[in-house]
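Annex B, item 7. Sequence and structure tokens for protein A, then protein B.
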Amino acid sequence: MTLRIGIVGCGVAGMAAAIACAREGFRVTVLERFETPRPLGAGLLLQPNGLAALETLGLRAGVEAMGARVAALDGRTVEGRPVLDLVYKRWAPDAYGLGIHRAALFDALFGALRASGAELRCGVEAASFEPGAAVTIVDTAKRRHGPYDVVVIADGSHSELRAQALPKARAPLFPYGALWIVRPDRHNRFDGALRQVYDGARRMTGVLPIGRAPGHTQPEVALFWSIRRDRYDAWRAAGIEAWRSEVSAMWPAAGRLLVGVTEPEEVTFAVYRDVCAAPWRAGPVLLIGDAAHGTSPQLGQGANLALADGVALAACLKARSADPAAALRLFRAVRKARTGWTQLMSRALTPVFQSDSTPIGWARDLLLRELSRLPPVERLMLATLVGAAALPGLPARLPRDAASIPLAERVPAG
């Protein structure tokens, strides 16, 4: 019998899972709450693990043509003191990141989804599910969808269904969020690196080259600004000019990017959750992507983990197609090591870069660069950056009988 798979959410994780599963011959239905699916946010950094997953999906070349290669991460204090200096080639000669406009990544995934044979139902906001050997999803209009042999919840860190699947799951908001805006970079002044400037742990701004948006010819960058959630209303009230002045005082080149911005509505305000939802599944219902293991953006791994989740899920379902429950257990075993490490490091690093602690900011500025020059520390930092690090003692790769998609977990060997 062909597995029937229902996927809630048409974001990165949901589309990756739908494409990979449909290509394996499963009957896939994607339920999306928006009438017209669309990308949310400004830009993101694809790491080697995410690029490997895109290669498995046959989308890497097209995405790379739209993005901007990132060779290094460079973080400095407002006085110019180096704090963070991570170069991908120190991990492997062919390693790099890719800054990408979210719309460009969305278009690539959405086009592949439409061509995959998966069914897409828009304007469907899933409200609950009826558990059993086969699961039926009920939407807010009381319509029923299914039944499905496997239900995949991929509706992001703010998931509405997570609590029903796993009542003990926790997803508190981080105190800090970020402002994001996309701006043109006509002369490629910010090409080649993700650059950040810090003023203690309370203030941080950064610029990421993201290539071209769909339909655009000019290169663009995503500027982000760290901000406490409870200060967002005050930021709006102060106005854009006050913000531009503050950014310019920290980093003049970044401040110039905001020339011409006049309204707060041009800026995206993003908030983040620390999602603790082990073991990700309840019977045939599985959480993936940010719905399962959302973190702060400090490691830039959210979309990358989501892509790898989708590809790995299809491989596990193919390997255990006669027993969906065993396939979901296999998925958990395969993905726990890498996602667990990312969550652990995210929790450790978030207060180092986004907190109200003056001593933490001082210690970071004084010690981080010196520590990162120690070869074992640098290797660990680079492994975390590229998506190769994993919790010790746990499997980090697909077992032999699920190795039909080996790129799902592969990054350049260091």
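Protein B:
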Amino acid sequence: MIQPEILCQSPIFRGISPEDLEKLFSQIHFQVKTYQKNDWIVNRGEVCDRLLIIQTGSVKAEMNDYSGKTIKIEDLSAPWPLATAFLFGKGNRFPVSLSATSGVVILSIPKPEFVMLLQLNSMILTNYLNTISSRAQFLSQKLKFLSFKTIRQKMAHFLLEQAGDRLQTVEISQSQGQLAEMFGVTRPSLARTLGEMCREGLIETDRRCIKILDKTRMNQLLKS
């Protein structure tokens, strides 16, 4: 069964009441699937022929870079949709592998049924277009990030993106282990790089707060 109170908070169904959502779903076919922690939900390269939305729990998106290293792209939790930008068009295959990081319940809507939903409700159509545009922008930034070869380039890019034009100090929500997983490197390697950047006067660290001391030199790192 669907959980309309949760689904109406999803970017795809935002602005639609649980009651209206229930009526819409009574007109289409769908599946609800349950996964245990560490179960694979989708393998990279699998045909993307249905819209997946997390009803409960969370999943991890991973892919391999050109050197064969596994890199975590992001963590996603309910009620987030999965691979929205790859449902239509040519070569519509899942770009990442998805695995459960907890007990997970996934709503699966076949593409023809989702098309029917788009035709039935213009708000869902608008929400979907906004969602795929946001995902395309996110993936573009992620590809740019993965193009940096060294750990210090990745760290410089990450910190400059977090700081923007105005901030000098960035509060990091992730642990060093989580950052290392996101960068596709080991935790000791990341810690060593942070130490080197501190000694060179690029940054200053205070637990999870990192102060950028020289933005000009940080930007030059990205061009080297």
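Comment on protein B: The domain at 151-223 is CATH 1.10.10.10 (Arc Repressor Mutant, subunit A).
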